[in-house]
What does this fold into?
Amino acid sequence: DAGVIQSPRHEVTEMGQEVTLRCKPISGHNSLFWYRQTMMRGLELLIYFNNNVPIDDSGMPEDRFSAKMPNASFSTLKIQPSEPRDSAVYFCASTTDRNTEAFFGQGTRLTVV
Amino acid sequence: RKEVEQDPGPFNVPEGATVAFNCTYSNSASQSFFWYRQDCRKEPKLLMSVYSSGNEDGRFTAQLNRASQYISLLIRDSKLSDSATYLCVVRVTGRRALTFGSGTRLQVQP
It folds into this structure.
């Protein structure tokens, strides 16, 4: 059974470029979360969706960040334009209404130079 | 002040030792509590849920003190494979999202 699938696993980009991170949640899971992890700030929630609808985006750092969930099996997190301080590991996780456990993807390691 | 606070460590212990991690949370509306484990350069994975009555899973014991807003994890007979970062995690009533502490790093040495 496939877990949460994220792509790409690694991304190196130049400052000012657009970056798109992708996530496929576990089939049947109706809640999806985007987290960012850095050494300084740990794991921070950026946004979460329930039934494809954004519920809480208060963690999105600024207007350069946007997230979409066009259907139950796909979500994107876009950064435009990217900056060096966006360098981090971005995790996607999913769960169900009845499940207390959130399952994480392997993450995308983003480096903005 | 962070919602979930942990001692970052690292805790360096010999194999076979008993080690305890503590965590405090600030939101009194917190409803569910967990410990997640994260290996180096990997994703976090659920280690165990924490119940009000305390719970045990093999060498791992988790306890919750709601009055003091405090959670603990005890690892007995530490193994080399226990080396990882342990994340204290809280879910607030009415929210699906989890709030993570910054993690406590454990290094078990031979």
